[in-house]
Amino acid sequence: MPLEGKAMTIDPLLLLQAYAIGVFPMSDDREAEEVYWVEPKRRAILPLDAFHMSHSLSKTLRRDQFRVTANRDFAGIVALCAQAAPDRPSTWINGPIEQSYRQLHAHGFAHSIEVWEGEELVGGLYGVSLGRAFFGESMVSRRTDASKVALAWLVARLRFAGFTLLDCQFMTEHLRSLGAVEIAQRDYLQLLGAAVGGVPLGAGSGVLSAGAGVAAELAFAPLARDAVTGSPLPPILTDAGPLSGHAIAQLLTHTS
Length: 256
Hints:
Its main location: cytoplasm. This protein is α+β, with helices and mostly antiparallel strands.
């Protein structure tokens, strides 16, 4: 069903409440004004212990071919995901959706993983964290394997931080090749309830001021801090979790 009104951003609290019951917004086209609530009957998720690490992706990660950060350029990632491309002439990310997630990011609940080649943003993904659930919204690649690298980093960081659910919304062959599976909405809601059960959404706007919580901080803050300080990331597993391509590949290869 469409949201009431046109070309309006979605209230951040309403967005979080929607995710908590298994609903998310989409639009028909980049230039469309209306936004619809969607609740798929079949849901794609990526079990965090089942990421499929191909040999070529492992090599790319171990070489640290790309620099990876988190929340350094959230707006840039959303804009890149919204752009048309030869294999994607239009997208579902319209203006109101783009602005809504930028607002949610400002409250600490929407996060991005950025993949850089030098100083050029060449891929990544963004999504929403709530409790121990991460809801993937979109990913993009402007270089071979850039989006796969972003997803590998996301899976490793979510595992380290104790997340239990990575929601991919709709199944694609690309996601299936990386380990995603499709489940009934009923089963998805059980996983969702366990992952967000401790979030006090009844507290209203107080939820927004409290931020996304410890799990999100553990997952994303180390990569965000690196973007600020510019210090080199250690090539090993540290107290902050896997913080290099080599460590990401090592962790996911041993468990995939």
